Amino acid sequence: MKTSKITILILAAAVIVLAVALILQRRTPAIQTGSPIEVIMTRSSVRSYTDKPVAKESVETLLRAAMAAPSAVNKQPWAFVVVDDRALLSSLAEALPNTKMAAEAQLAIVVCGDMRKTLEGEAALFWVQDCSAATENLLLAAHAQGLGAVWTGIYPNAARADAVRSILGLPSYIVPLNVIPVGYPASENTPKDKWKPENIHTNGWQAEAE
Ligand SMILES: Cc1cc2nc3c(=O)[nH]c(=O)nc-3n(C[C@H](O)[C@H](O)[C@H](O)COP(=O)(O)O)c2cc1C
Fold first, then answer.
1. pLDDT tens by residue, 116-125
2. What distance in angstroms lies between residue 152's CA and the mean position of ligand 1's atoms?
3. What are the φ/ψ torsions at residue 164 (nearest 5 degrees)?
4. 34-188 — its CATH code?
5. Quick check: CB of 126 below 6 Å from ligand 1?
6. Taking the CA of residue 85 as centre, how many other CA atoms within 13 Å lie in the half-sphere pointing to its CB?
7. Are 109 and 183 in contact (CB under 8 A)?
8. What is the rounded average pLDDT of the residues 87-104?
9. Where are the domains of the chain?
10. pLDDT value at position 210?
C-alpha cells in the first residue's frame, strides 16, 4: 500500500474516533469538575430525569460519599437501600405523593437509620443527624457527577415510613429517613439564592431590627 493511502486511512480513522468521542461527550452531561465549594453552591433539587442509565460505578460513588459522612461517636447508624427495579420505583411513586418523580428516575436510594447501631438513651436520636449528613454527601456526590437527585422526606411521617417499609420489606429496626430518586437531569437547574445575612449572629444573639 502506498504511503499516501496509509496516511489517508490513519486520518480517516482519527476523524471517526474524534466524531465518536464528540457524540459521547454530548450525551454525557458535563461532570462538575469545580471546587468542592462550587459543587456545594451549584447543587439544586432535581425532580425530572432523562432515560440515560446510571453506571454502577456512579452509584457506588454516591454510596461511598454517603458513608464518608461524619456521625456521632462514629456510630455510622445507617443503611442504604438501592432501588433500581422499575416495578418497585413505580410502587414507591404511587404510595408516596411527595416522591412521584421516582417513577421516572433511574434509581432511588433510601437512606435509613439502623436502630441496632444507634447510641444509647437520648443520644439515640443523633441517628437523624448522622443520616442527614450522609444524605447531603450523597446529594453533592450526585451533582458532582452530573447527576440530579432530590431528598424526599419520609421520617418522621409514620404513614410514609410504613409505606416504604412494606414496599421494600424493611425490618422494624430499619427506619427510612428519606427516598432519593436519582437520574441524569432532564433540564438545566438553577440553584436558589438562599444567602440571608440576617440569619447570622456574631458572639451571641442580635435582636432583629424593628
Ligand atoms: C428534610 C427534607 C425533606 C424534603 N422533602 C421533599 C419532598 O418530600 N419532596 C420534594 O420534592 N422535595 C423535598 N425536599 C427538597 C426541598 O424541597 C428542597 O431542598 C428545597 O426546596 C430547596 O431547594 P434546593 O434543594 O433546590 O436548594 C426535602 C428536603 C429536605 C431537607
1. 999 999 999 9
2. 6
3. -65, -40
4. 3.40.109.10
5. no
6. 8
7. no
8. 98
9. 1-30, 34-188
10. 64
